[in-house]
């Protein structure tokens, strides 16, 4: 008998064998495509730090969503770019705002498409923070409980427009319970809640803030988003949100937080969603454009790693190109 007896390489010998024993495979069904929507017609404003991503008027957003759906991507998540901003982000619950208009148009154009909406104030406030500001102990901070009222209005507006899933991304305490009750009381008990449960204060959101025009004018988000050093706290956030009624929970960003995705997966039985965020996308694109990395290969490797870590669903700007690369 030759040594060694255990030869894992036997199963790597041909592509057929490799594909038979592959533990994690990607499908376009895993993906949700984020879309930035604004008023107007035939607008496709490129986002400089996110090649291939555009700010889209509703007609263009419909085209993009149809393309995604044609390639097997079942869902989009909408971010709104309002015409007016103010201190409390009141365009956030405007029935004629870009998100509400886009939800209605998308549900009409592609009824089977799962339309998600991001619920947060930062795109709508003139100061760029994710809620209402107050002075407290000599600091300007986001007022948790006052913000819950505003988020509830925004979520209700999206639900009334026909959103299938609303996704609060503000990181206020108690928002899941507040949104669940608000939606139920208004007769929207069928609208699902995807909570950005473990959302870290991350440098990887930079390109998104360019796309959404949501950079805080002063200060940062460390007073409400999580500290990158914390893992146990993520489990606590997730448990609280599940107890409050979250149907799905999210870990965000994905790539620097694969350990969190894995731990959260082991902790809860609701679907785990991961957000492959703007900065992660920008890194792959930049290196690809420079010829420093094989962009398509790295893209699929990144998405595979997120799924392997435990994500059931991945929000990714790569959704359409990844579906294409997978042969769909
Ligand atoms: C809104 C929100 C952000 C992202 C999703 N929802 C930005 C932030 O928290 O500053 C980031 C998504 C990305 O980077 O792709 N609060």
DSSP summary, beta strand count: 12
Strand line-up across the major sheet: 1-4-5-8-9-10-11-12
CATH fold-level label: TIM Barrel
Through-space gap between termini: 46 Å
Assigned CATH architecture: Alpha-Beta Barrel
Number of helices: 11
Radius of gyration from CA coordinates: 20 Å
Tally the structural domains.
1
Name the beta content range: 15-25%
CATH class: Alpha Beta
Structural class: alpha/beta
Can you write the helix and strand succession as a string? HEEEHEHEEEHEHEHHEHEHHEH
Describe the secondary-structure layout:
Elements: H1 15-21, E1 31-38, E2 44-46, E3 54-57, H2 58-70, E4 75-80, H3 98-109, E5 114-119, E6 133-136, E7 139-142, H4 144-161, E8 165-168, H5 175-185, E9 192-199, H6 206-212, H7 232-244, E10 248-252, H8 258-267, E11 272-276, H9 278-289, H10 295-309, E12 313-316, H11 319-325
Parallel strand pairs: 1-3, 1-4, 1-12, 4-5, 5-8, 8-9, 9-10, 10-11, 11-12
Antiparallel strand pairs: 2-3, 6-7
Helix pairs in contact: 2-3, 3-4, 4-5, 7-8, 9-10
Ligand PBG binds near residues 118 and 277.
Tell me about this structure.
The protein has an eight-stranded parallel barrel, surrounded by eight helices. With 328 residues, it is of the alpha/beta class. The chain has helices at 15-21, 58-70, 98-109, 144-161, 175-185, 206-212, 232-244, 258-267, 278-289, 295-309, 319-325; strands at residues 31-38, 44-46, 54-57, 75-80, 114-119, 133-136, 139-142, 165-168, 192-199, 248-252, 272-276, 313-316. Helix 2 (58-70) crosses helix 3 (98-109). Helix content is 38%, strand content 19%. The radius of gyration is 20 Å and the shape is globular. The protein has a single domain (24-325), classed as Alpha-Beta Barrel (TIM Barrel), CATH 3.20.20.70. The chain binds ligand PBG. Ligand PBG is lined by residues 118, 120, 122, 130, 169, 205, 208-209, 214, 221, 277-278.
């Amino acid at each position: 008998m030759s040594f060694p007896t255990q030869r894992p390489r036997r199963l790597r010998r041909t592509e057929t064998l490799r594909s038979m024993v592959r533990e994690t495979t990607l499908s376009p069904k895993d993906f949700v495509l984020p879309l930035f929507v604004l008023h107007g017609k035939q607008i496709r404003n490129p986002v400089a730090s996110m090649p291939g991503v555009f700010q889209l008027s509703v007609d263009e957003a419909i085209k993009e969503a149809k393309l995604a759906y044609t390639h097997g991507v079942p869902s989009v998540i909408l971010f709104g770019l309002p015409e007016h901003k103010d201190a409390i982000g009141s365009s956030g619950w405007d029935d004629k705002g870009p998100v509400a208009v886009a939800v209605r148009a998308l549900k009409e154009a592609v009824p089977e498409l799962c339309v998600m909406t991001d619920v947060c104030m930062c795109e709508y406030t003139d100061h760029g923070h994710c809620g209402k500001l107050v002075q407290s102990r000599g600091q300007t901070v986001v007022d948790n409980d006052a913000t819950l009222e505003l988020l509830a209005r925004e979520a209700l507006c999206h639900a009334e427009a026909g959103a299938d899933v609303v996704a609060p991304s503000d990181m206020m305490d108690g928002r899941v319970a507040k949104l669940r009750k608000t939606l139920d009381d208004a007769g929207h008990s069928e609208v699902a809640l995807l909570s950005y449960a473990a959302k870290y204060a991350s440098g990887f959101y930079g390109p998104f803030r360019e796309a959404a025009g949501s950079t805080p004018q002063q200060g940062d988000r460390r007073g409400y988003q999580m500290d990158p050093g914390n893992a146990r706290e993520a489990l606590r956030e997730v448990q609280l949100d599940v107890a409050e009624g979250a149907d799905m929970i999210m870990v965000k960003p994905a790539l620097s937080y694969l350990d969190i995705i894995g731990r959260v997966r082991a902790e809860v039985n609701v679907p785990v969603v991961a957000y492959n965020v703007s900065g992660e996308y920008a890194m792959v694109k930049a290196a690809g454009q420079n010829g420093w990395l094989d962009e398509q290969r790295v893209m699929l490797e990144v998405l595979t790693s997120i799924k392997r870590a435990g994500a059931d669903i991945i929000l990714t700007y790569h959704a359409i190109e990844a579906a294409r690369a997978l042969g769909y």
